[in-house]
Amino acid sequence: MNSTTAPMVAPAVADDGRFAIQCEVLRLSIRPIGPVLLAQYLLNCGVAALFAWQYSLSRALVWISLITAVTLMRGFFPQRLPAPFTPQSLRDAQRTHTVRTGIWELAHGLAGVLLFNPGQPDQQLLLGLMLMGMTLSSAFSVSFYVPATQLAITLLLAPVIVTGLWLGAPAMKAVALIGIGLTAMMWKLVAERSRQLEENIGLRLNERSLREQALAGLRASEQAQAERLRFFSAANHDLRQPVMAIGLQAEVLRQQLDNGADAPLVQHTVASLARAQQALEGLTNQLLEIGRIEAAADPLQPVAVSLAPLLHDLARQAGDGRVTVRCPADAVAWADAVSLRRVLANLVDNAVKFTPRGRVLLAVRARRRDTGRAWRVEVRDSGIGIAADSQERVFGDFEQIGNVERNLQRGHGLGLAIVRRLAAQLGIQVSLRSAPGRGSVFGFELPAAPADAPVAAPAPAPAAPPRSGAAHALRPGLAVLVVEDNAVVADSLGALLQQWQLAPRVYASAAEALALADLRALDAALCDIRLPGALDGIALAERLQRHKPSLTIALVSADIGEATQRLAAERGWHALRKPVQPAELHAVLVQAQQAAAGR
């Protein structure tokens, strides 16, 4: 990638730097020089007086009148520069500056014609030397723009050189020839001086740019740190609420059991505990998803995605028939299937959540763009709506409109933040049209897939947790190996398995399990992936499978990714993400029981 983009970027950067240098050169060239201008004018008056006395009063008055006019022009009518500069306005300003400088020096150079005395060789030499002195003194102050300075030198010396070669005495002709050489030398010196000046300006601009970049980086870092602090403060606040609820409900449950409370009251407390646990799990899952997005842990794989099946599947998952779909059958977009599904799922969930009554519509229509065909995807609801001043804020972390009380049953304000991050990865812009009480429309555009691209299979929906029940009762005494180094989790798993009248064998490491457990008598194994010692849960599962190929094995971890799920599928294992739901665990053990019965 670098090899292809660098040649395209470097000239643009170089052109920008050159443009900035030229703008600065022109600013320096027209800056006010009042005291210098006054000193030059007084010297010119002295020259005019000298030649008025020795040669011609009328000619001297004509020349000093020209000098007065151009001095007034330069002193009281300075050139005004455009702000800001553009390439065209810079070229126009350079031409104007060159013309003004040429007029200024031509007025001085006309002394070589008006004050030239053909009959007096000594006055000719004096005039030639004075004009050469003017050239040497003014060449480096009249302008810093090379074309303007070179024109000024030429117009200052050309009249006296031409007049001297035409009408001058032999000595004056020699001085005129020297003037030609002086002109060429001054042209070269001006060019060299200008090159050095531009290098110095470039260094200064580069230093300024680096300083501004450093300050901008510091401000961005401070802002990012403030945003990070706000994010973790909000996450800490929302995490503590279900944790607090779990702690309080656990104490209520303990006291109810101590006091022999009725079963309905205990069941109500248990249901409250389950709701708090679900809220905690939902928040941790969203935080994990944000972390994976920002770490780019799931690289994008653009494919041709058929939109109609995807939208109908999302509508079915939303349940109760409130979500309808209007999508052309030939709508096939080019996008990462998994990320696109996550964007749409969050938008649908947000629409349903904030639409107490009414319907949600998933609509797709074709668009024509300069880059080709595109599909406009919109999620429309008739819910509470969002005020204009809050529409940008809803995409922030932990931001919710209409949930000031932070009711965790209505989410945590991270769904649209996840949408914003995923959209940035996909390169799409999510728009929002809304008004209070009139619903909201979230929309974005996707490029159409190439006509010859094979349509990918729909991205799988997150599996709904299986339900356990009497239809699949577990056989008492089913032998289950539990290898878990976290004592609290191990005790909880053991207690649940015993409650189901199973026979758990609980160990804290792979080495301990391999050394102490009767592997042949096992019916199922639950292996935490991260274990102390040389063997992790995957290595343990491989050894268990070699000892007993028919053993039902489940990998258990809080960070099971796509690679782990793929490995488990290849080996015939299960992959359970912590916190493991009892129904998921029950379903795995039912399969283990059925496999044991078939042997």
Coarse morphology? elongated
Taking the sheet with the most strands, its summary is: 5 strands, mixed
Beta-sheet strand percentage?
Answer: 5-15%
Q: Kindly report the spatial arrangement of strands forming the biggest sheet.
A: 2-4-5-7-6
Give the averaged pLDDT, no decimals.
82
Number of DSSP strand runs: 12
Q: Using only CA atoms, what is the Rg?
A: 42 Å
Order of helices and strands: HHHHHHHHHEHEEHEEHEEEHEHEHEHEH
Helix/strand-derived category reads alpha/beta
**What is the CA–CA distance across the termini?**
56 Å
- List segments where confidence is low: pLDDT < 50 over at least 5 consecutive residues: 1-13, 466-471
Number of helices: 17
Helix content: 55-70%
Could you provide a short overview of the structure?
The protein has 599 residues and is α/β, with parallel strands linked by helices. The protein is 59% helix and 12% strand.
Word description of this protein:
The longest helix has 89 residues, at 170-258. The strands form three sheets. This protein has a five-stranded mixed β-sheet with strand order 2-4-5-7-6. The protein has a five-stranded parallel β-sheet with strand order 9-8-10-11-12, sandwiched between helices. The chain is of the alpha/beta class and 599 residues long. It has helices at 2-29, 34-54, 57-76, 87-109, 111-114, 121-138, 146-167, 170-258, 263-294, 307-318, 337-353, 415-426, 487-499, 510-516, 537-547, 562-571, 582-597; strands spanning 302-306, 323-326, 332-336, 360-369, 372-381, 431-434, 440-447, 479-483, 503-507, 524-528, 552-557, 574-577.
